[in-house]
Amino acid sequence: MNEPDGQCIDNSYAALLQDLRAAIEGEKMTLVTGAGLTEVAKKRGFASPGNRVLGASRNDFAIGAIGASVPAMIEAPIRFNVAEGDDSTATLRYQRPSTIFAPYVASAGKDLATVAAEPGVIFAVIAARAIARCAEMSGGHKVRGSGTGLRCGWTGFARCRNGQGRAGPGSSVGRAAD
Predict the structure, then answer these.
(1) pTM score, two decimals?
(2) What is the distance between the alpha carbons of residues 152 and 40, in angstroms, rounded to a whole number?
(3) How far apart (Å, rounded) are the C-alpha atoms in residues 14 and 126?
């Protein structure tokens, strides 16, 4: 698997999951899947940190993607991963739709690249909204961006733990990245 295009280390697994769900809904996307083996492992007596995958989609994007490439639909819905750390933090990871669908563009044509572009911006906004509480806790710093040029271009990380926040320079959450 490729490295995630975006990552945030938040202050709480449960809070980050709640904030991610709210951000998905707030951007008019539909939460279509949710899977995690943590609860199953605990029922079987295994201690396991929280780990959940949430899949989000929107009907018009799905129809456009199917029209452009039926084989690419194995990648839908686009997923976010929230993983609990040993140090009372949680990490949010996702890959942009353009990255996920890139292997299919050669056979499907640029229609698929076009279809993947708009939700890419929305997914970046969802991620930014989901980690906004973390950024606020970090004293007004935002999440470090990687300079991809994605508007609201969150593709970095922030760490917040026990109410103490840290974030790197060059942050770009909540504002347009050049």
Answers:
(1) 0.73
(2) 36
(3) 17
